[in-house]
């Protein structure tokens, strides 16, 4: 069977090797892109900026999936330029029948022009809409395309989507391939700064999904980058290796990674999974190598089959008794790490950013394929099957216990007429849009905050001690915690499956803890709670971290606040220069210096003789501030600094929470050792 399938793939590749202008289909013009870039790349912020790279890389990945490329190189160059090269067939350069121009120019300057709308050039592709190269061109102040075909090198340059000259033959070359160099347009992107780690993570992901293709990366933006910041990814194991990578810092309950590969009705399906001793699920779906963070039909098909197969197996082997209810999706996905990758000829994504797959046929194909192969796996691997069955049965029992505890808490809150906890100092406003709640550490800080607040719009909820680490606790144990229960009731939006963002009582939820190790730990525990159980709150932009000052710097009647060590040095320098200017003005510099040297001295060692006469107060607790100070530095909307908490990479966030808050000590120790030197303001 395997040999027959490989012959069919080889036949398909050879039939599409005659890739020319006839394969390029033009649908419409280019102008709308610059007017509404968000429609094509999602935004003009960091996500949209990096999306430019993904669009060009996707085209190279398409060549690899079609069997025509083995090497892809991405280089970040100085002056915000990016170069992407591959050893594929090379974009056609012959004259296009419809446009009467070179096919290269047609592809690069015409929206909806490409080899993915018809013909046999690509069986599957990630660039469904065929707008990738032209959109990047339209949003770049400069672009250059080079194509090597049959020993000749062709090139064309563009400025904001318009060609500067015709496609020209500029020399000779070796192997076929395409190189695209582009520079994002500052008229479109207010901030142009590519993130090396973000690019690396994406490229690593693509290498896992494109087995046998080498993807290399080099960041040349730094002066020392000649021999550094170079990486290469090549994975023979494909998505099996991907699952092992995702589970690298947690304990797995079975060593074997289940893997299935099959083609159903022209849909190529790959699924790899493994269960871990964890409470969270990690599901990653891909369609034609495009990550679908919102899932879609392929994930729905997988989930349906997984629940059915594990119910059937559990009943057949008496893990579930006849009078017990079936397992549900929540049970069978606890601790699951899975990668589902499908490749289709005609993909139907929701939106240009391709966050969800809409093909109904993908659901049917994945469901039938996975049900058949996973059932066989459980029968053939009894030890793994027992471990998986035990895990999901335990999850089912814990879910029922958690539901009973949650229902009791929510019901008591209503029946006892105490939907709000007694320790909450609520605000007067009933409008969630203008209301904010400060979650503060301890009664002392709570007292200062209650005295400082604007009673009309600001609520204060003091928490005593460190809350439960929810990364290690199930919902029933979590809701037994008095502090967490108070927070759940105060927010008013319930929790777990009953959670409703529309019912949230505050649109600003501010974590306000002390600037010491204990404060940082409490903040991390609260962030874990919100990430695991209130993620829609984070995604809506409602969660913030207060930034109280670290220092109060004073001299005489003048004082200023510093929020970091760097700012402290700047303020000291500015105040010193001001003092010296005043001394020169009044021609009493020596007298002033003598007088001040007898006055207050810096409370911090290492300041030096330059800053004699300054008093530097280091705040370690919010309770050290009186209400007026806390208001003007941390709570006054006109002056305060708040950090909004956001999730840029959910998979990476999930991994970090596993490391920092999970049961495994070794990964946490390694993380601390790796990042210890970067920590500032460390109190020991």
TrEMBL record:
Q: Where is this region: Disordered?
A: 580-607
TM ranges are: none
Instruction: Give me the residues that bind Mg(2+) 1, please.
Output: 441, 514
Q: Which domain of life is it from?
A: Bacteria
| DNA-binding recorded as keyword | yes
Question: How is the cofactor bound, as the UniProt entry phrases it?
Answer: Binds two Mg(2+) per subunit. The magnesium ions form salt bridges with both the protein and the DNA. Can also accept other divalent metal cations, such as Mn(2+) or Ca(2+).
Tell me its cofactors: Mg(2+); Mn(2+); Ca(2+)
The family database entries (SUPFAM superfamilies) matched by this protein are listed as: ATPase domain of HSP90 chaperone/DNA topoisomerase II/histidine kinase, Ribosomal protein S5 domain 2-like, Type II DNA topoisomerase
Cellular compartments annotated: Cytoplasm
Gene Ontology biological process terms in this record: DNA topological change; DNA-templated DNA replication
Answer yes or no on keyword Magnesium: yes
- Any idea which GO molecular function terms this record carries? ATP binding; DNA binding; DNA topoisomerase type II (double strand cut, ATP-hydrolyzing) activity; metal ion binding
Keywords on record: ATP-binding, Cytoplasm, DNA-binding, Isomerase, Magnesium, Metal-binding, Nucleotide-binding, Topoisomerase
**Could you tell me where the Basic and acidic residues compositional bias lies?**
580-601
What is this enzyme's catalytic activity, as reactions?
A: ATP-dependent breakage, passage and rejoining of double-stranded DNA
Toprim domain: from which residue to which, for each copy? 435-549
Entry's EC annotation: 5.6.2.2
Task: Give site residues, Interaction with DNA.
Answer: 466, 469
Where on this chain does Mg(2+) 2 bind? 514, 516
Family to which this protein belongs: Belongs to the type II topoisomerase GyrB family.
On subunit structure and binding partners, the annotation says: Heterotetramer, composed of two GyrA and two GyrB chains. In the heterotetramer, GyrA contains the active site tyrosine that forms a transient covalent intermediate with DNA, while GyrB binds cofactors and catalyzes ATP hydrolysis.
Other observations noted:
Few gyrases are as efficient as E.coli at forming negative supercoils. Not all organisms have 2 type II topoisomerases; in organisms with a single type II topoisomerase this enzyme also has to decatenate newly replicated chromosomes.
Task: Please identify the protein, giving its name as recorded.
Answer: DNA gyrase subunit B
Which organism is the protein's source? Candidatus Ryanbacteria bacterium RIFCSPHIGHO2_01_FULL_45_22
Q: Which gene encodes it?
A: gyrB
């Amino acid at each position: 069977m395997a040999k027959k399938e490989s012959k069919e793939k080889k036949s398909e590749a050879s039939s599409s090797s005659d890739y020319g202008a006839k394969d390029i289909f033009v649908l419409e013009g280019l102008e709308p892109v610059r007017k509404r870039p968000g429609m094509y790349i999602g935004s003009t912020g960091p996500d949209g900026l990096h999306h430019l790279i993904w669009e060009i890389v996707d085209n190279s990945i398409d060549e690899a999936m079609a069997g025509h490329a083995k090497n892809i190189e991405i280089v970040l160059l100085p002056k915000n330029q990016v170069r992407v090269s591959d050893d594929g067939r090379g974009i056609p350069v012959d004259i296009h029948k419809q446009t009467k121009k070179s096919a290269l120019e047609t592809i690069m300057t015409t929206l909806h022009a490409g080899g993915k709308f018809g013909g046999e050039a690509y069986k599957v592709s990630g660039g469904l809409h065929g707008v990738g190269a032209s959109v990047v061109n339209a949003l770049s102040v400069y672009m250059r395309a080079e194509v090597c075909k049959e020993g000749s090198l062709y090139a064309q340059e563009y400025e904001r989507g318009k060609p500067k000259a015709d496609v020209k033959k500029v020399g000779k070359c070796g192997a076929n391939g395409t190189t695209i160099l582009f520079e994002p347009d500052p008229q479109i992107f207010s901030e142009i700064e590519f993130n090396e780690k973000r690019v690396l993570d994406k490229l690593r992901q693509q290498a896992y999904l494109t087995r046998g293709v080498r993807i290399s990366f080099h960041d040349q933006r730094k002066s020392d980058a000649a021999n550094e910041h170079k990486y290469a990814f090549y994975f023979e194991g494909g998505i099996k290796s991907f699952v092992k990578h995702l589970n690298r810092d947690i304990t797995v309950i079975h060593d074997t990674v289940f893997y299935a590969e099959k083609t159903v009705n022209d849909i190529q399906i790959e699924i790899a999974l493994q269960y871990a001793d964890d409470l969270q699920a990690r599901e990653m779906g891909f369609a034609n190598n495009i990550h679908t963070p919102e899932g879609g039909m392929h994930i729905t098909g997988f989930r349906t089959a997984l629940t059915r197969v594990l119910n059937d197996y559990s009943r057949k082997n008496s893990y579930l008794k006849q009078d017990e209810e079936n397992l549900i999706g929540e049970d069978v996905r606890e601790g699951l790490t899975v990668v589902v990758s499908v490749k289709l000829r005609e993909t139907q994504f929701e939106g240009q950013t391709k966050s969800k797959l809409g093909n109904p046929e993908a659901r049917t194909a994945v469901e039938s394929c996975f049900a058949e192969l996973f059932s066989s796996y459980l029968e053939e691997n009894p030890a793994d099957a027992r471990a998986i069955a035990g895990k999901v049965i335990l999850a089912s029992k814990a879910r029922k216990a958690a539901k009973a505890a949650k229902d009791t808490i929510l019901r008591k809150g209503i029946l006892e007429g105490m939907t709000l906890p007694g320790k909450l100092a609520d605000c007067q406003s009933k409008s969630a849009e203008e209301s904010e709640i400060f979650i503060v550490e301890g009664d002392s800080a709570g007292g200062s905050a209650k005295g400082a607040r604007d009673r009309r719009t600001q609520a204060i909820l003091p928490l005593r001690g460190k809350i439960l680490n929810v990364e290690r606790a199930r919902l029933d144990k979590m809701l037994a915690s008095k502090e967490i229960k108070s927070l759940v009731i105060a927010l008013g939006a319930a929790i777990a499956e009953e959670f409703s963002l529309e019912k949230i009582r505050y649109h600003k939820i501010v974590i306000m803890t002390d600037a010491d190790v204990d404060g940082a730990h409490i903040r991390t525990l609260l962030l874990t709670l919100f990430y695991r159980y209130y993620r829609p709150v984070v995604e809506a932009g409602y969660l913030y971290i207060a930034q109280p000052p670290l220092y109060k710097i004073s001299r005489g009647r003048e004082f200023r606040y510093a929020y970091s060590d760097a700012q402290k040095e700047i303020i000291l320098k500015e105040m010193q220069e001001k003092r010296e200017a005043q001394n020169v003005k009044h021609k009493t510099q020596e007298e002033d210096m003598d007088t001040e040297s007898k006055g207050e001295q810096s409370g911090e060692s290492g300041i030096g003789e330059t800053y004699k006469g300054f008093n530097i107060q280091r705040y370690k607790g919010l309770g050290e501030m009186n209400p007026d100070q806390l208001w003007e530095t941390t709570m006054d909307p006109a002056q305060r600094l708040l950090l909004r908490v956001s999730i840029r990479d959910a998979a990476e966030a999930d991994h970090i929470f596993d490391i920092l808050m999970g049961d495994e000590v070794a990964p946490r120790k390694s993380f601390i050792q790796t990042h210890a030197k970067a920590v500032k303001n460390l109190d020991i």
